[in-house]
Amino acid sequence: MRDTEDKDTLWKRLKDGTIDCVVTDHAPHTLEAKSIGYPNAPAGMPGVETSLPLMLTHAIDGKCSVSDVVHWMCEMPAKVYNIENKGSLIEGYDGDLTLVDLETRRTITDADTWTKVGWTPYAGFELTGLPMWTIVDGIPVHSRTKEGSFKGNSLVKPGQTGRPLRFN
């Protein structure tokens, strides 16, 4: 979103409930592919690993609340897509949780990303809300320290934990 009016409209519609949730399709394309320019360049960009810190930075900066971010990025995607036992910390739901650091700000660089395309449109942004622990089905799967690598550490191999999503 390049235009301020478009950004303001998105925020307004998110806050009034017209837009249900904040999600990312994580459509990573190389800088070479993106350099073609609009409208011929492929749509999308890498963003799944920065979406939560971006939204939490907006919350800390007063654009919305942390509760709004939880609602838009956890509760509502599960509701909109009818995903069973996800989106909230409720007894009987899967034990999925992300613990974030809302005090430390770090500047993102292209080298910090997990994405295989090796760049982020948010390079140079100073963000807070970085995930410190990610827990899937009650099992810690990722950790990060304030002083350590921006990427953090994977604690399990893909597929070692979790369960298939169930839809209503």
Describe what this molecule looks like in 3D:
This protein has 168 residues and is of the alpha+beta class. Helices cover 26% and strands 14% of the residues. The model has no long low-confidence stretch (mean pLDDT 92). The chain contains four helices and six strands; from the N terminus they run ααααββββββ. It has helices spanning 4-15, 31-34, 48-60, 66-80, and strands spanning 97-101, 106-107, 126-127, 130-136, 139-143, 153-154. It has a single domain (4-154), classed as Alpha-Beta Barrel (TIM Barrel). A four-stranded antiparallel β-sheet has the order 1-4-5-6, covered by helices on one side. Strands 2-3 form a two-stranded antiparallel sheet. The two termini are 33 Å apart.
Question: Descriptors for this entry?
Answer:
single chain; 168 residues; alpha+beta; TIM Barrel; 4-stranded antiparallel beta sheet; two-stranded antiparallel ribbon; 6 strands; globular
Arithmetic mean pLDDT: 92
> End-to-end span in angstroms?
33 Å
As an assembly, this protein is: single chain
> Can you write the helix and strand succession as a string?
HHHHEEEEEE
Largest sheet: 4 strands, antiparallel
Note the total helix count.
4
Number of domains: 1
Proportion of strand residues: 5-15%
The named CATH superfamily: Metal-dependent hydrolases
Q: Looking at the structure, what is the overall shape?
A: globular
Helix content class: 25-40%
Count of extended strands: 6
